[in-house]
């Protein structure tokens, strides 16, 4: 597989997430307060809830339904009720393009 353009960097709002799907893999793409772009699995491991609808705080994304927060860097849950991590994907920025390959997990 190759990296796919998911959006323009200029389309991302700081401290918020958008949902994208690449080759059947749902992801939450986040521009954090430090200006870094992250891509993690979009489905909360506690419930079938889109994380892209959640709240960004620093380098975490919190599920709006039950409050589990996930590290944008590692995918690890930081509090209960979730205890399983979500996948984290490598992101490439090429000019204004945000590229993600769902087959490439980010080295943590």
TrEMBL record:
<dbReference type="GO" id="GO:0046872">
    <property type="term" value="F:metal ion binding"/>
</dbReference>
<dbReference type="Pfam" id="PF00355">
    <property type="entry name" value="Rieske"/>
</dbReference>
<dbReference type="GO" id="GO:0004497">
    <property type="term" value="F:monooxygenase activity"/>
</dbReference>
<keyword id="KW-0408">Iron</keyword>
<dbReference type="GO" id="GO:0016705">
    <property type="term" value="F:oxidoreductase activity, acting on paired donors, with incorporation or reduction of molecular oxygen"/>
</dbReference>
<dbReference type="GO" id="GO:0051213">
    <property type="term" value="F:dioxygenase activity"/>
</dbReference>
<feature type="domain" description="Rieske">
    <location>
        <begin position="4"/>
        <end position="100"/>
    </location>
</feature>
<keyword id="KW-0223">Dioxygenase</keyword>
<keyword id="KW-0479">Metal-binding</keyword>
<protein>
    <submittedName>
        <fullName>3-phenylpropionate/trans-cinnamate dioxygenase ferredoxin subunit</fullName>
    </submittedName>
</protein>
<keyword id="KW-0560">Oxidoreductase</keyword>
<keyword id="KW-0001">2Fe-2S</keyword>
<keyword id="KW-0411">Iron-sulfur</keyword>
<dbReference type="InterPro" id="IPR036922">
    <property type="entry name" value="Rieske_2Fe-2S_sf"/>
</dbReference>
<dbReference type="GO" id="GO:0051537">
    <property type="term" value="F:2 iron, 2 sulfur cluster binding"/>
</dbReference>
<dbReference type="InterPro" id="IPR017941">
    <property type="entry name" value="Rieske_2Fe-2S"/>
</dbReference>
């Amino acid at each position: 597989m190759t990296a796919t353009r998911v959006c323009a960097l200029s389309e991302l709002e700081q401290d918020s997430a958008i949902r994208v799907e690449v080759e059947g893999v749902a992801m939450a793409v986040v521009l954090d307060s430090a200006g870094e772009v992250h891509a993690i699995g979009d489905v909360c491991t506690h419930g079938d809830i889109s994380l892209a609808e959640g709240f960004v705080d620093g380098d975490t994304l919190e599920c709006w339904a039950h409050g589990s927060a996930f590290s944008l860097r590692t995918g690890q849950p930081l509090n209960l009720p979730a205890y399983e991590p979500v996948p984290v994907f490598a992101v490439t920025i090429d000019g204004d393009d945000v590229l993600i390959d769902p087959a490439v997990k980010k080295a943590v």
